[in-house]
Amino acid sequence: MEELKAEINTDNLPRHIAVIMDGNGRWAKQHGKPRVFGHQSGVKAVRETTEAAAELGIEYLTLYAFSTENWNRPKFEVNALMALLVETIRKEVKTLNKNNIRLAAIGDLDKLPGKSQKALQKAIEDTAGNDRMTLVLALNYSAKWEIMNAVKSLAKEVEAGKLNADELDETDFADALATKGMPDPELLIRTSGETRISNFLLWQIAYSELYFTPTFWPDFRKDDLYKAILDYQNRERRFGKISEQLSKG
Ligand code: IPE
Ligand code: IPE
Ligand code: MG
After folding, report:
1. Is the CB of 143 under 6 A from ligand 2?
2. I need a surface site. Which of 11, 26, 133, 138 has the fewest CB within 10 A?
3. Whose CA is nearest to atom 10 of ligand 2?
């Protein structure tokens, strides 16, 4: 574990890592257990990943915890996920404070059950003073929802004469997104072997490095994060240029 960590170049860390935590249900099935057991087992992976990211000096870690599409799951599973969310958030505040980690959330939070909203709000307030890393939970999140929201808010400002439509730029748009103020993720990880984005951070991942691993989320540990970061560090981020134009360190 320490060997892999030692290989990481701390001068070339992503500032922001986003994770699509997937595979809880299949993990549970593999163990002959109900799907909800998979979600419960995923909490350990959240803890480990958060701790490892903070220890490395990552500034933002965004975890996709519940998509707007996930409401279409069986009611029993949705309820269990919401209950797990409240329970986990309440339990983890102490550790977040101990580790100097601030909690934030992106998504259509007003549509979450009242209990979840309250627990989330309280945890956000209770960790607001922490500044080692920001842990962002994407809850009732979808990128298309976020983009539509941004379009509506910008349209209103144009209507009100506060902005000029012809002068709108990428910064105006980025500032209208839920991720306002955060750097775009340099690295996006998806577990469970699925190689799709599932409506996550579409604008923000325009130039992210994508990393897919077959590991199911409940099995994801610090070493898996280190492997993803090492893979990222071996890539050449050209941003449209050619290799020879990039200054070699
Ligand atoms: C990810 O695991 C957790 C959520 C989407 C809430 P899944 O529940 O999607 O697990 P699989 O993909 O069915 O295995
Ligand atoms: C994506 O996982 C959403 C979260 C991880 C919260 P899903 O399991 O819902 O995605 P699909 O349905 O396989 O695309
Ligand atoms: Mg899934």
Report:
1. no
2. 11
3. 198
